[in-house]
Amino acid sequence: MTSSTVFIVDDDTGIRDSIALLMETCSLQTACFATADEFLAACGPNPRGCLILDVRMPGINGLQLQDEMILRCIHLPIIFLTGHADVPLTVGAIRKGALDVIVKPVNGDLLLELVHNALEVDRLRHQADSALTLFTARLLKLTARERQVLSLALSGMPNKTMADELGISLRTIEGHRTRIYLKLGVDSLIELAQQATSAGMSMSTLTALPPA
């Protein structure tokens, strides 16, 4: 499933159907499952959307499913449903990454608001993942020497000092920097830093590039 989907996992058929109908009023695609096992079998390795998840279910319960999703690196935003307000449960679920825990009976307007927020969280995460993948692919095009020059440049070292440090000419350093910018699709170190930030890559990661 590659399009954004509101996954609904609840052993109560009536709740599943009513939530699915609510989502459909906003033209949101849904997929319903009675058990955690059914959901895990269907969602695939990198699903798009969010998960509305009942806490208490036969077999694997909602909190156990959250743990299993963490182990499998399934990063769907989770909105938990519970029959009883439970502060420790809520705190524990949110600490593990759940967006919210709401008590049944579900307020439709609140649930829709949470779902739209969750879908936006998921969209931004996938956007960041795509940016990181592209940026990393560009970095891998750099030669070992270009990585070394980039690391020194990011540390603030001037071209002349770099040339002395590496035992090469200033013109060679300038040539390396030109090729680095071309391969990374930037015009300056400032733009490079901006792209790295947008991709979720820290400057410490960039400056930790392996030496030649």
Supply the helix-strand structural class.
alpha/beta
Number of helices: 10
Strand content: 5-15%
Largest sheet data: 5 strands, parallel
Q: Give the helices and strands as they follow along the chain.
A: EHEHEHEHEHHHHHH
Helix content: 55-70%
Number of strands: 5
Placed side by side, the strands forming the largest sheet appear as 2-1-3-4-5
| Cα gyration radius (Å) | 24 Å
Distance between the termini: 42 Å
- Averaged pLDDT, please? 88
Q: Which spans have pLDDT < 50 for at least 5 consecutive residues? A: none
Globular, elongated, flat, extended or rod-shaped: what is the shape?
A: elongated
Provide a short characterization of the protein structure.
By secondary structure, the chain is an alpha/beta fold. It is built from 10 helices and 5 strands, in the order E-H-E-H-E-H-E-H-E-H-H-H-H-H-H.
Explain what this protein looks like in three dimensions.
The protein is an alpha/beta fold. Helices cover about 55% and strands about 10% of the residues. The chain contains ten helices and five strands, in the order βαβαβαβαβαααααα. Helix 7 crosses helix 8 (about 170-185). It starts with a strand and ends in a 5-residue tail after the last helix.
